[in-house]
Design goal:
Layout: H1 2-14, H2 23-26, E1 33-38, H3 44-56, E2 62-66, H4 77-86, E3 91-95, H5 103-113, E4 118-124, E5 141-144, H6 150-158, H7 167-182, H8 187-197, H9 210-229, H10 237-248, H11 257-264, H12 268-280, E6 284-287, E7 302-305, H13 308-311, H14 320-332
Helix pairs in contact: 4-5, 11-12
């Protein structure tokens, strides 16, 4: 355990974030068990480490571990939690929880047997806490972290402190709100860059290789997360890639599921399952009209890529209508 604590302190010391997300303050970190779910690359690890650094400093009462760390292979999650609690630990932060086979049962055991220990677990947005070996839905609180909104992007780039404004306020009070905002910045000056590069915080590492990194993120989601969590056959991944490409190069429309299935050489039910899995993975947004009864096997009324940055993986010039609709669906979704 000593080496685990040493590596944790080194990880914490290396953290030098360039911004702080408001989402940190929205979380009730004192819940017995809470999950932070989200797409790869949205900043779940940074968020947890920032909170640890702010709240605990260098104290060993908190411990951060990542379940994709080979050095933890000789320990069970329950064993790590017990040892941390015996050492005076009060909070355990577990990253990449979906990489650990028996995660749901052991988290249940930790919550039931080590009641004084607070556990925060992060994982893929695909993760369904009701589908593990132990149903944790009544024992935990789930938060979802999204990529950067345009407001957050502007706050980072321009060092502003723009507040959240609801859609209702914008519609009702836009004549007051817009002039106030225009005094601080020119939205269109930064909008195109955000649409292409600004959704994932790793754009701060540089935009030259941004889409290459984004492509790698998408590959990991398809080849690892969907295979591991959703049970998607790896031999079917090329068809799912083709599906994403077809959707990204077409103007959003009411989909013809039969024709789309024919283009992928698959059946209707399989295609609908792919679409729902991709929505869980934060790759797609499936829009359904209010007032209708939907199941997983009901076709959506419209399909968008989850964010505008993904559109640029397959093309350099994106239809402006597609960009605007995708942006709107993402920001209010």
């Amino acid at each position: 355990m000593d080496q685990i604590y040493i590596e944790y302190k080194e990880t914490l010391a290396a953290l030098k974030p360039r911004f702080r997300r408001d989402f940190i303050d929205e979380i009730d970190w004192e819940e017995s068990l809470l999950f932070i779910l989200g797409s790869r690359g949205v900043g779940k690890t940074t968020l947890m480490l920032q909170y640890i650094k702010e709240k605990f400093g260098t104290s060993s009462t908190a411990l951060y571990i990542s379940m994709d760390d080979l050095s933890l292979s000789n320990y069970t999650l329950l064993d790590l939690a017990k040892r941390h609690a015996q050492n005076g630990g009060t909070h355990l932060f577990v990253d990449e929880i979906h990489k650990y086979n028996n995660w749901s049962q052991e988290l249940k055991n930790i919550r039931d047997k080590i009641k004084e220990l607070r556990v925060v677990a992060s994982g893929s947005s695909i993760l369904d806490i009701q589908k593990g070996n132990a149903d944790l839905s009544r024992r935990s609180v789930v938060y979802t972290l999204h990529g950067l909104s345009f407001r957050e992007y502007l706050n980072i780039e321009l060092k502003l402190n723009l507040p959240i404004i609801s859609l209702t306020d914008i519609v009702s009070n836009h004549e007051i709100i817009v002039p106030q905002l225009l005094e601080q910045f020119k939205p269109l000056q930064h909008f195109a860059t955000y649409l292409k590069y600004g959704y994932f915080p790793f754009y701060l590492e540089g935009i030259k290789n941004y889409h290459h990194k984004l492509g790698n993120v998408l590959n990991v989601v398809l080849e690892q997360d969907m295979a591991l969590i959703e049970g998607v056959d790896l031999t079917k991944i090329p068809k799912i890639r083709k599906l994403i490409y077809l959707l990204s190069t077409q103007v959003p429309y009411q989909p013809n599921i039969t024709k789309l299935a024919e283009a992928l050489e698959t059946d209707r039910i399989t295609l609908l399952n792919y679409l729902n899995s991709l929505q869980k993975a934060s790759v797609l947004t499936l829009v359904r009209l209010n007032g209708k009864l939907y199941t997983q096997l009901t076709k959506p009324d419209k399909i968008f890529l989850q964010n505008t940055n993904l559109l640029y993986l397959s093309q350099s010039n994106v239809n402006i209508g597609t960009l605007m609709e995708t942006f709107f669906a993402n920001q209010i979704g």
